[in-house]
């Protein structure tokens, strides 16, 4: 869906020596590489230490394009320290090595990329990604992949509560929900309908320097 935007900026990126990838098996754009074949061909051993020589807590880990919380839209710098701080939420929330974390949020946004992908890493839990959110298939996916932790934004939970009730609404293994932006009435309805799921509501911003977690429920 971002192909036109990528192709428009590609000549300038190539002049700056930037390599561009699609997370796919093939690339429809000359000059843009397909990343999946390279991932599949990569060795299983950890990368050599020389690749991270000189990396400090203040080093840039990635850029995330924001809608401009503190000004105009921009590519916000995510340092290695901030990445580790976000990843520590897994330990704070009680994530276990046998947990399966499920997200349907886009990975070009902080909620999907920073909260979901790094969080399972320290304890070694599994991360299940879905390309697009589906309210009607959400719980079927949770059952199919033995999901124990789900990630959300408030609207996602509201959509789930607005689906027709089913006899198997509580037949799942989800024990925890991690996310932000859920209204109180949706929170109550979600628990009533889908069972006693521990909800860890947090607040943070890509460009912010502080965060909050409602650990009491």
UniProtKB/TrEMBL annotation:
One of its GO terms (molecular function) is long-chain fatty acid-CoA ligase activity. GO terms for biological process: bile acid metabolic process; long-chain fatty acid import into cell. It holds the Pfam family AMP-binding. The keyword Lipid metabolism applies. Residues 48-212 form the AMP-dependent synthetase/ligase domain. One of its GO terms (cellular component) is plasma membrane. Belongs to the ATP-dependent AMP-binding enzyme family. This is Long-chain-fatty-acid--CoA ligase. It comes from Dicaeum eximium.
């Amino acid at each position: 869906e971002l192909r036109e935007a990528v192709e428009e900026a590609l000549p300038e990126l190539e002049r700056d020596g930037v390599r561009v990838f699609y997370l796919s098996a093939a690339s429809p754009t000359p000059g843009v590489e397909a990343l999946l074949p390279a991932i599949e061909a990569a060795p299983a051993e950890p990368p050599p230490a020389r690749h991270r020589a000189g990396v400090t807590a203040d080093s840039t880990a990635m850029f995330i394009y924001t809608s401009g919380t503190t000004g105009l839209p921009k590519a916000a710098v995510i340092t290695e320290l901030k990445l580790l701080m976000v990843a520590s939420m897994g330990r704070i929330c009680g994530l276990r090595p046998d947990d399966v974390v499920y997200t349907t949020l886009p990975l070009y946004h902080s909620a999907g990329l920073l909260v979901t992908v790094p969080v399972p890493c320290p304890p070694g839990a599994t991360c299940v990604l879905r390309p697009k959110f589906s309210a009607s298939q959400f719980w079927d996916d949770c059952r199919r992949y033995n999901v124990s932790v789900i990630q959300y934004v408030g609207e996602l939970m509201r959509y789930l509560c607005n689906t027709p009730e089913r006899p198997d609404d509580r037949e799942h293994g989800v024990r925890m929900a991690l996310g932000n932006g859920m209204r109180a009435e949706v929170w109550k309805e979600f628990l009533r309908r889908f069972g006693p799921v521990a909800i860890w509501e947090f607040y943070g911003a890509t460009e912010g320097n502080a965060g909050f977690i409602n650990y009491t429920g």
